[in-house]
Design brief:
The chain has 218 residues and is mainly alpha-helical. Helices cover 51% and strands 10% of the residues. Helix 2 runs antiparallel to helix 4, helix 2 runs parallel beside helix 6 and helix 7 packs across helix 8.
Length: 218
């Protein structure tokens, strides 16, 4: 009778951004050169579903800009290791990071795409730990004060679901725990992942253009 059940802690539900919120976030993020690294990381996350820990630990040996894909080899669990094709937006963001790396000479395969900075010293052999200040500033300016970086992942998965993308394709892109079993039985091909993300990119671009046109007309 002395035993009491511990209260269950519900996991926070991710937030999916509306198209208008996405447009505002990326417009604001791209307006400040100091925010460029976190802005480009957000673009990659919003177009690939990578988790914050996955994008921070991305190394150049895992990025293929020619064939347009990335390999996620560092995640919160091994079952989330996966290959994700890059749509146009994600590839452009990584190409920009590559140009920045070339200027600094940080292009060795083991160098991190988003590298550490401490006390003004840059270290490409270590991943960036956090970008809280830049992220907080840009999201506040965009009028999204409570937005988490992880919410970009929830946004893309929600959009894929709304577009009618099959569950097994979404699982393969997002790297849920059941991904390996799903891929074993359904034989998901890289082309299926690419088609899903390319469709997402095209639909989002159309929405952004519509929002931009309305803004110019006002």
């Amino acid at each position: 009778e002395r035993v009491k059940q511990l209260p269950e802690t519900a996991s926070p539900i991710g937030r999916a951004l509306a198209y208008e919120e996405q447009y505002r976030l990326f417009e604001v993020a791209s307006s400040n050169p100091d925010w460029e690294p976190v802005y480009l990381a957000a673009v990659v996350a919003a177009n690939t579903s990578v988790r914050p820990v996955e994008v921070k630990h991305l190394q150049w040996r895992n990025v293929d800009l020619i064939d347009g894909m990335i390999r996620v080899t560092r995640s919160k669990n091994q079952s989330s290791h996966r290959v994700i094709p890059l749509n146009q937006s994600a590839r452009k963001a990584l190409a920009t990071m590559r140009s920045r790396a070339e200027i600094m000479g940080f292009t060795n395969p083991e160098h991190y795409v988003w590298y550490a900075r401490q006390w003004g010293r840059l270290d490409p052999t270590r991943p960036v730990k956090k970008w809280d200040t830049a992220w907080r500033n840009l999201r506040d300016k965009a009028g999204l004060p409570k937005l988490r970086f992880h919410d970009l992942r929830h946004t893309i998965v929600t959009e894929l679901a709304e577009a009618g993308v099959p569950d097994h394709v979404m699982e393969s892109i997002s790297g849920h725990l059941s991904r390996r079993m799903l891929e074993h039985y359904s034989h998901v091909r890289i082309e299926a992942k690419r088609e899903a993300l390319d469709a997402l990119d095209a639909r989002r671009a159309a929405k952004f253009e519509e929002i931009s046109s309305k803004s110019r007309a006002q």
